[in-house]
Every structure is written in structure tokens, then in C-alpha cells.
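Practice problem. Given the sequence and the SMILES for magnesium ion, write out the predicted structure.
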Amino acid sequence: MQLFFHDWFTAHVSSWNTDSHCAFRIDRAPTEAPPPSARSPLFRFKRPHPPTPDFGCASAGRSFALEIAEAAAGGGRAACARGGQAAGGDGAENTQPLFGHQICTAMEVSPQAPSKDAYCAAMVLSGAGDALGYRNQRWEYCTSGPQIHQELQEMGGLGQICVSLPDWPVSDDTVLHLATAEALATGKNGEPLLQELASRYVEAMKDMDGRKPGPTSILGTSQLRPEEPGGYRIPFNPSATGCGAAMRSMCIGLRYPHPSDLTTLVQVSVESGRMTHHHPTGYLGALASALFTAYAVQGLPLERWGLGLLKTLPLALEYIQSTAADSDLNVGSWAYFQEKWEWYLSERGLASGQGPARFPSAYGPAERDVIYKTFSLDGWAGRSGHDAPMIAYDALLGAGDSWAELCSRAMFHGGDSDSTGVIAASCWGLAHGFRGVPEGNHQKLEYRDRMVAAAGNLYDLAWGQKPV
Ligand SMILES: [Mg+2]
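Answer key:
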């Protein structure tokens, strides 16, 4: 189950369950309380191990209140991560007030299990988004969104496009995204997982004919030594600001979709990202793609994703500093990613995490080409780790449930359109499945079977044995 609370709320402990989870019920404040029948459903909060019997009701209430407020601000960071034993007893209906009104922005807790089809759509449509944006090199390197739209119209529109070989191959984005997904699908964790990722990235580079891999990915994978201890780490690279890490990381959010997975999501996205892009602007793009995908799984309102990313960055910085791998160089280059995202959210009126997003009054293909460039590091929109997920996010905010509009905004523009497309389509697929997507856009997609298989395996790993 999942719920969102946006304003004031009160919470009550309803019960401790025998599975060491505490159930809560979130209510609106009395001034705006809905009738009891409309109260939100229970959610679960993990009980500490061992329990802390001296944690009185008042202090427990305060602890939980602070944690939930923190979780709200951090996009769910603290939810289920830590808890105190609150008074409330073991009776199923032994409800006691836990804490008073707390202001809260929003959070997601114990997300309801999505369908396996949604996971399938996330993987398959990411490949479709890549192939559409790429158009066998032609559209990735076309600098005019209006020209791409014109060519699309001359082909009969999106519905007439059959995304299949030889004209519509997937690009490097999907090959490397599959490498990430298939490494995660092994179920490995920790060091063995990082070695698996490095090994598969090296292997994936053998499948790049006609797929235009980026120079930083080529260099980074040439430096990996997955057979050696710690061989998944490469030196800091001041030029590794590209989107090559961001474009292959959505599946990390499929593997670690729960709020309680956040620490792991941060670590795996940072480590896998810097296997080729050892620069914060590069590997934080991997974090953004993974986190946004997790948010999409959770059903978190889009307007809150950007703020959630900003609130998660300190976790990534903490991790970087703890691993002592060129820590000073990383810290010295840290600010740009964060500042650019703060600027973007301010532009869209989303700095506080409250919507609706504010777009320019004229925002068609021509205007978007101009505006997207203002997101960029060097004038090539979507080329970098920060702005590939930024353009994808911008497109998601504007597209609603329309696949055609998503493609117009994320795949058919004058920038690095396959990388923005691969990210946007993955998140969109989680929310909307294949609804409204022309069958020709994905049914004969190259590597479709591998994507479906990876989606199923990631789903089973993420949801198979997880208490909800
Ligand atoms: Mg590509």
C-alpha cells in the first residue's frame, strides 16, 4: 500500500505486528479531517531490533515525528530505516495517539507492489525510447527538434514507426542498461555485485558496432579490471561529466525500489556510475536515474522528485567521503550538479516540491531546443549527467499520460535525444505501462526478450520476499 500526505497530519499507533512491523494510520488534522471512513490506510514501520522498551510514548512519538518529517523531506529516506518502540500494545485495535500535528511535505511508505507488467514496460520502453531518439545515429546527432518532428510527420507519425532492425537499432544506452540490469538480476550484492557490473560493462563494449558509445564509456571500461580486487574502480576523471552513467541506471531503481533500499540504491548507483564516469556530474546522473525510477515505482508525485534528489545528495556525498577513492577531487567538483538542479527546480517552480510545474508559455519543439540548452553544461542538451535526467524529468512533467507527447519532448529534440529518451521512457512505463503506445514502437524491438527477462528477474528480487 502507499499513501501520501501533503499538509498536516496526525498519526496513531494501531498495532505492533508479530512480524516486527508497526502499523500506523495517518489522519488529517482535525481542522481539515475527512470523515473516519475516509482515513488513509495503514502503513508499516519497521520495529527496531532489539526493541527499546525504555522508549516512552512521548519520546517515541517525537522520534517518529522527526523521522517521518525527515523522510518526507528526503523523499522517504528514513521511512522504515529506524524506529523506536512506541506505546500502543500488541492489540490490533489498541490505538493510541502517537504524536500531534506535524507539517510534512510528502513521502511514500511501503509502496504497493506494482505489476510485473509495469516493470516490463519500464525496461522495454526504455529501449524503445533509446531507439526512437537514436534513429540509427540520424536523430541523436540532429541538432534541430523541428526538423526531427518534420521528418517524423513525413514518415506518417509515431504510430507508423516500427522500431526494429535494421533501421531502428538500440544504441549504446540500451546495451549498457541491459548490462546493468542483467548484473543486478544475478541477485548478487556488495563487492561481488560490483565485480559483476564491471565485468558486464567490459563485455558490453564488444557489442557497440553502429551504436555510438561515448568516449568516456570507452575509456572507463578500458580501465576496469573486474578480475582484480577493487578492479571496478578507476581514477577520477575531470572530463567524465557525460550522461553515460545516467543512461544505464534506471534498472537500479527497479532492483531497489523501496524507501528502505535508499542507502543501497545510492551506493550501487554511485559505484556503477563511476566505473566509467568518475566525476560527480557523471555518476550523480546515475543516482538521479535510479532514484527517479524508484520514485516511479513508488508512485511518488512527479513534482516531488527533484526535491527528493536534492535531499538525497548528502547521502551520496557521505558515501563518497567514506570510500576514500579520490575523495577530495570528488568533493571539489561536487557543487555543479546540485546547483544546476536547484536552478532548474526554481525555473519550474518546484523548489519546494509543490506543483504544478511552471512551463514557459510557448514550449514547442523550437522553444524546447533553446530552453534545453540552458540546462546544459556545454550547449549540447542532455549530453551530461545532470541534464539527461533533467530533460527526461521535464518531459515527464509535461507529457502526462501521452506517449506521443513524451516522445516529442524527450526523444525528438535537438540534443542527446536517445539518452534523454531512454530515461524518460523507463519512468513513464512504470506509471502507464504500454497504454497508448503503438505496438510497432516496441513489439519488434531489438533485445526485447532480454529486457523482458531482466524485468521479471528484477521484479522477483525486489518484490518476491519483501514484506509490504
Ligand atoms: Mg546512445
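Check your answer against the key. Residues 8-103 form one domain.
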